[in-house]
Design a protein that fits this description.
The structure holds two protein chains of two kinds.
Chain A: H1 2-31, H2 36-42, H3 52-61, H4 72-103, H5 109-118, H6 128-137, H7 144-148, H8 155-167, H9 170-178, H10 183-194, H11 196-211, H12 215-220, H13 229-235, H14 240-250, H15 252-269
Helix pairs in contact in A: 1-14, 3-14, 4-8, 4-11, 5-8, 11-15
Chain B: E1 4-12, E2 18-27, E3 32-36, H1 43-51, E4 58-63, E5 66-67, E6 78-81, H2 93-103, H3 108-122, H4 137-149, E7 155-159, H5 167-184, E8 187-192, H6 195-201, E9 204-209, E10 212-217, H7 219-224, H8 229-234, E11 241-248, E12 251-254, E13 257-259, E14 268-274, E15 279-281, E16 287-296, E17 300-306, E18 312-318, E19 328-333, E20 339-342
Parallel strand pairs in B: 3-8, 3-9, 6-7, 7-8
Antiparallel strand pairs in B: 1-2, 1-4, 4-5, 9-10, 11-12, 11-14, 12-13, 14-20, 15-19, 16-17, 16-19, 17-18
Classes of the chains: A mainly alpha, B alpha+beta.
Bound molecules: adenosine-5'-triphosphate (ATP) and magnesium ion (MG).
Magnesium ion binds next to helix 1 of chain B.
């Protein structure tokens, strides 16, 4: 009996937690399916209305921005390019950096690694003006390249891969060598397959990181053509229901990525190797 | 020049450890060479230099008539079986075997043929699709062997491959390795610190101590004719008995007994070595043993006891003799099979 009470009590606490997280999102979603006059008169809604298609379609296709040059659809496209680019580029570079740090006979590899690691203490915001002027010099303002490259060196991912490589037994490398594998083949045939789940986890992390960028895209794009979703959230004008609809849609890509890859994601983060 | 030739090979690790001292050794084609010695004596280091996994500090290694000091391990055409097998965990057994062949650019049909042949030879055909994590220790051992065999290398190198197996499986695999090597006929070097393994497997045996080959020879030569105190103590089970003694005018006097007319001109402090199996009971005895403990192995009895001066001593007798604890035995050395070593240098003097 007491067990029943304590267990239902903890369930109750968990339920309250879930409600606190979910209800606001639900209210925004429910409100986004009503007409704006309805919201203006009656405030936020708990139940679904019948303007879903009308509102969401309008948001997707509406020419927004000061110059009316960009639609939400285009913003999603830009964000997707940027997030994917950041994810792939940062994972590839940190895989290779970690490989060099662990397997090449670099004299001060450990010191070098910690220097790379310290860059975590220097966030983009601190170096944003020098980085911008480099991009400007190189004529990369208003380009996908300029959006992606400056934020694609990840010390965290390098750390993860380095620590993983260090747990790979030496005999594996030696055995592979005797089997005729050169440096490149060992990387491709052994380290990449062995760190597969970790690679997927890092891809997700870096995708969400890239997707959520705000300050950098704001600075490095002057043309509305390169606006991203997160910028759009701030810049969007229009009625409240349309903004709600846009907020709801902006959550979809990261959630989709996580749902699709969650099997690997959990394995990768909690890998006991 | 023989098939594998080591000339004055020395290894000094970057931290200053001198693991191998000016070692020279020749291995003939098809020969099964065993390196045996206590832990840390440099067996693995020597083997790894042949494989190319460690740089050679000084000296030359020739394999099949070619100097290989600077040849990359991937180009040496040697195969190695590691203590922990080092199977590729993300590949199934088939690909574990095939990987080395793929890297050599061999076509698919030939690879399949070779892998299947090796798998049949090692009786692992049923597991080809399994990952190594789904195999037992003995099966993993076979896969590791298969990976070496399938490439048909110039030389097999084994670094204590049996030490992770339980006693029974170890004896079985020992037998299989020997049979397999005879069948395939590949030159092999096998590293172990187990002297029984060494004796049973070797065509020739190198007893290594502190980075030096103390003695090189067939197992029987080494057993019958150990050249140093170390080799005498290391080879043979149970261990040889050692007694302190002194030689003067061809007469050796040890605690409690004398041996006259010995075959040596040495004078001074010595160690007298007697194998437990070279003793027998007789009336006019040399040695009196007070029995503490009898281990009955069935075919043999191992009798442990003490001499007059409280020195521990072991005597091996046929299993059909009953010997009681506390008994006093008088023992004689059979056929003058005793070994005398210079106490200061450890060198054999008779
Ligand atoms: N990478 C290394 N750096 C420095 N010293 C080393 C290194 N590897 C081995 N040694 C030293 O070299 C000596 C020989 O080592 P080795 O591994 O060859 O011994 P072993 O005979 O194989 O012993 P075991 O039977 O325990 O495997 C040891 O004293 C060891 O401490
Ligand atoms: Mg060793």
């Amino acid at each position: 009996m007491t067990r029943f009470i304590t267990s239902s009590f903890s369930h109750l606490i968990l339920l309250i937690g879930i409600l606190i997280m979910v209800v606001p999102i639900w209210m925004i979603f429910a409100s986004s399916t009503h007409t704006s006059s309805m919201i203006n008169m009656n405030g936020l809604q708990m139940f679904l209305g019948d303007s879903f298609y009308e509102n969401y379609l309008r948001v997707l296709l509406y020419q927004g921005g000061f110059f009316k040059e960009i639609t939400a659809l285009k913003m999603f496209f830009n964000s997707f390019i940027m997030a994917t680019g950041v994810a792939i580029l940062s994972v590839v570079t940190s895989l290779m950096a970690a490989y060099a740090l662990v397997y090449y006979r670099i004299k001060y590899a450990t010191l070098l690694f910690w220097i790379i690691f310290i860059t975590i203490l220097v966030p983009l915001e601190l170096r944003i003006f020098p980085t911008y002027s480099v991009m400007a010099e190189l004529n990369l303002v208003n380009s996908y390249f300029g959006l992606i490259v400056p934020i694609s060196a990840s010390a965290i991912a390098t750390l993860f891969f380095r620590q993983f490589y260090k747990t790979v037994p030496d005999e594996l490398l030696e055995s592979a060598k005797l089997d005729g594998a050169n440096t490149w083949r060992f990387f491709v045939d052994f380290l990449i397959p062995l760190s597969k789940t970790m690679i997927v986890a890092m891809l997700i992390f870096m995708f969400v990181f890239g997707y959520n960028q705000y300050l950098w895209p704001l600075l490095v794009t002057t043309s509305e053509q390169y606006w991203t979703v997160v910028m759009g959230l701030k810049m969007m004008s229009g009625s409240i229901v349309h903004r709600f609809a846009f907020v709801m849609m902006s959550m979809v890509p990261p959630i989709l990525i996580i749902i699709v890859l969650q099997k690997y994601f959990i394995k990768g983060v909690f890998q006991d190797k | 020049m023989s098939f594998l030739d080591l000339k004055n090979v020395t290894k000094i690790y970057p931290n200053g450890t001198k693991a191998v001292h000016e070692t020279s050794l020749s291995v003939d084609e098809g020969e099964f060479m065993v390196f045996v010695g206590p832990s840390g004596c440099g067996k693995s280091t020597l083997l790894r230099m042949v494989a190319g996994l460690e740089d050679i500090t000084e000296g030359d290694i020739n394999l099949d008539g070619k100097l290989i000091n600077e040849v990359d391990p991937s180009e040496r055409d040697v195969a190695m079986v590691f203590q922990n097998y080092a199977l590729y965990p993300h590949m199934n057994v088939y690909n574990n075997l095939a990987y080395g062949l793929k890297n050599r650019g061999i076509d698919k049909e030939t690879i399949e043929q070779k892998v299947n042949d090796a798998a049949k030879l090692l009786q692992i055909s049923d597991y080809l699709q399994r990952k190594p994590s789904m195999l037992s220790g003995g099966q993993r051992q076979r896969v590791a062997m298969g990976r070496a065999i399938v490439r048909n290398p110039k030389i097999f190198l084994f670094d204590e491959p049996l030490s992770n197996l339980d006693a029974k499986l170890r004896i079985q695999m020992r037998l299989e390795i020997k049979k397999l090597q005879q069948k395939v006929g590949v030159t092999s070097i096998f590293v172990t610190h187990d002297q029984v393994e060494a004796m049973t497997l070797a065509d020739r045996l190198a007893v290594i101590n502190n980075g030096i080959i103390e003695q090189l020879g067939t197992p029987i030569e080494i057993y019958d004719n150990p050249k140093s105190l170390f080799v005498a103590g290391f080879i043979g089970s149970p261990q040889m008995n050692f007694l302190d003694g002194n030689i003067k005018n061809k007469t050796l006097s040890a605690e409690g007994f004398e041996i006259k007319d010995i075959d040596s001109d040495f004078e001074g402090e010595v160690k007298l070595g007697i194998r437990p199996e070279h003793l027998s009971q007789s009336e006019n005895s040399l040695i009196n043993l007070k029995v503490d403990l009898v281990e009955q192995l069935g075919s043999d009895n191992l009798v442990y006891g003490q001499l007059k001066d409280k020195k521990d001593f072991c005597y091996r007798c046929p299993g059909n003799l009953t010997i009681e604890k506390g008994a006093d035995l008088s023992l004689n050395i059979e056929n003058n099979k005793y070994y005398i070593f210079d106490k200061s240098t450890g060198k054999r003097v008779n």
